[in-house]
What does this fold into?
Amino acid sequence: MTAQQQKEEIEKLTTQFFDELEYLNELREQYNELLKNGYFYLAKSRYSMGLKSLGQLQYPENIKSTFTITIDSDNSLSIHERQDKKKSPSSSSNNTSSSSSSTTTTTKRRGGNKESKTKADSDDESSDDESENNNNNQENNENNQDGEKKPATPKRGNKELIKKDPIYWFGIMTPSTLKQSQSYFKQSINLSLEMSNKIILLNVIEKQLEELKKNQQTV
Amino acid sequence: MVFFGGRKHGGMFTFNKDDGYLEAILRGFKKGILSRADYSNICQCDNLEDMKMHFLSTDYGDFLAGEPSPLHTTTIAEKATQKLVNEFNHIRNQAVEPLSTFMDFISYGYMIDNVVLLITGTLHERDISELVDKCHPLGLFKSMATLSVVHNVADLYNNVLIDTPLAPYVQGCLSEEDLDEMNIEIIRNTLYKAYLEDFYKYCQYLGGQTALIMSDILKFEADRRSINITINSFGATELTKDDREKLYPAVGILYPEGTSKLSKAEDVDQVRGVLEVYSTYRNFLSDQGMNSNSERSLEDAFFEHEVYLNRMAFEDQYGYGVFYAYIKLREQEIRNIVWIAECISQNMKSKMNQYIPIF
It folds into this structure.
């Protein structure tokens, strides 16, 4: 690669870097907006339901995640709804080497009260893959329970829906504001994933840039 | 008219002998309810510490004294509730029959909430002592002390609930084998239905102004529950229409015709159609009423009407309606304060004026 080509390449990557950065900032704004609305509707629901019927006492002691985040072969993250059935062994054969990096990105991405502590429950068959336990929707409850994990666990097998959707912890007949709040928090999960993928991409670009610059100096 | 030891309830000549003092105290308490000026002061606060300062000049005084900062909205709510509970107990402790029973009836509603909280907690394997701490202080009952030995729902009923005034309501709606979120919801609503009907019956039995004022308030409360149950259950496919109908209280303006129509409703429009013929509720579900982005939601309309009814109770004399109304107005005030505090702490000042002023 000639010096000229290298220069061009550096410039191209720099532009790409800032484009992605700008996009990331946009995503962050959207994310903030979603969380803001989520918390607001949560406050509204507590206004109508009463403080005591919407709090940490309503969710189970040992909650499991309803979503898992997996690291794909190209290092990007993807989100899946957790299957209640036991996973087949093949599904857990993803590369484990990247698990530590997944933890860091997730932690970075979520910042503050949204980071998950990643320990799979002992009875959770999928704990052997590197998936990240992810809280879904309305964690946040009043006291911002850091790292509190949500998802529903009821033992009954016949009512799948109740089993799955954590909104039912707060009653079958919850007001529409709570459902809205939940949907905002749900959206924020996908967005946070998108954001972390962007951050990963940015890191990759940054590394490439550094390498190119090193090469340039040696040349 | 019912006689209590030779005294007639609600009699113009005898009412003050037993209840006049307490009513006077209560009307004094009522003077402490925040006015519009107080609200506008509180709304101008930039943070919760400022709010605490403003409360000093109101009836709340230094109720937040000694609370470590940063203040949390939950703390404010707890302290304000405690103040209300102290006032309630002050009156309850001096009340004689039938006012004492009437006030006990008020506390049963909170007991139901507590029971549901306990059952939910037990189901979710929560620590029982943690649950008792969080129970509403007005709904505490003596046998709660024995709760530490309770490990399942059968114990809960046999050791705790059986000795409470709720026992007659509980019978027939607790079943151990299939207790899940669904059944808890049914238990909650069945209990509340039984409670409302019983309270209504008691007020009718007392007669006089009490029956007059309370029947309006309780009928509204029953209708509100029916409408809420209907609307909130639209998403929940597990609840059949027959089940839903069983949860509607058998009192209220809507009962029986309206509730029977409500039980068949499948969406909000149909509910709106049912309510169309009831002048009180006609405007509650206006087009923007269901849109929670609008300034005034259905919930707000209900709260507003509740405040109106309770305020009207104070225009009346020789009845117990004021005792109930005062508690409810104060509760609304606490909700208002918490709402304003939430808006301040979430930096959503534009939504702040959605509270419902009382006087």
